[in-house]
Structure formats: structure tokens, C-alpha cells
Amino acid sequence: MPLMLRPLARYLDFTGRSRRSEFWQFYLLILLLTALCVVGGVIIERTTQLPGNEIGFHMVGYLDVVITVPVFAVMVRRLHDVGKSGWWLLAAFIPFGVLALIMFWAREGTPGDNRFGPDPKATPVAL
């Protein structure tokens, strides 16, 4: 399974660890799907008399409903990979807390096992 789809397969899994590549590829997938929804809405608006922007933004809203749980799950697992608790997500509510989270998500994970599980780089990837 491609890394960008693995968070969808681990939909409700808030345990364990996720690699940087899995995390950032999933966010790239979200960005591409959002852009596709908006562009699709514009194309519908230009080619028909339907209000396309509304359709595109409704599709983005449905996408948000589907991916909200996997987004939080992969954020928690990414924090676990650098040895931090998922409670660090609450840092987003304080000034500059999002910057700290981005630095954690961009940092290389803890080598070897940590208290959240085995190193995902050392674990063979199941196809």
C-alpha cells in the first residue's frame, strides 16, 4: 500500500508510530484532492448553468468529514515517532504552538524502539 494511503487504512489507530514520509505524503494527497474538488467545481460552473463553486466547496466539505479522523490519528502517531505524547496537539491553541508541532513533525523519528512502539523504519512494510 502506498505510504500516502496508509493513514486511511489506519483510520482509527492512534497508537504506534508513523514515519515522516507517510505523514507528509498524506498531506500532499489531501492537498491534491482539495485542489481537484475546487477545480472540478470551477469546471462544472463554466460548462453548465449550475453553481459550480458551491458544488466544489461541498465536495471539499465532504472530504473534510472523511479525513478528519485519519488526520488527527496520523498527527498523533507522528508525534509518537519523535517521542512526544499526542497531547502535544493541544499546543496548537497557544501562540506559536503550531510552529512547535511543525518542527516535531518535520524532525526525524527516534531511532529504535521508544515507549510508543517499534521503529517504523526497522519494521518491514507489509504490501
Write the layout of secondary structure elements.
Elements (H helix, E strand, L loop, with lengths): L5 H4 L10 H28 L4 H30 L15 H10 L21
Structural notes for this entry:
- By secondary structure, the chain is mostly helical.
- The chain has one domain.
- Helices cover 57% and strands 0% of the residues.
- The chain starts with 5 loop residues before the first helix and ends in a 21-residue tail after the last helix.
The main β sheet shows up as:
none
**Mind telling me the C-alpha Rg?**
17 Å
Beta-strand proportion: under 5%
The structural domain count equals 1
User: In percent, how helical is the residue content?
Assistant: 55-70%
Q: Estimate the mean pLDDT confidence.
A: 87
The tally of beta strands, per DSSP, is 0
Structural class per helix/strand content? Answer: mainly alpha
Shape: elongated
What is the succession of H and E elements?
HHHH
Number of helices: 4
Q: Can you tell me the residue ranges where pLDDT is under 50 for at least 5 consecutive residues?
A: none
The rounded distance between the terminal residues' Cα atoms is: 5 Å
Characterize this entry briefly.
By secondary structure, the protein is mostly helical. Helices cover 57% and strands 0% of the residues. The mean pLDDT is 87.
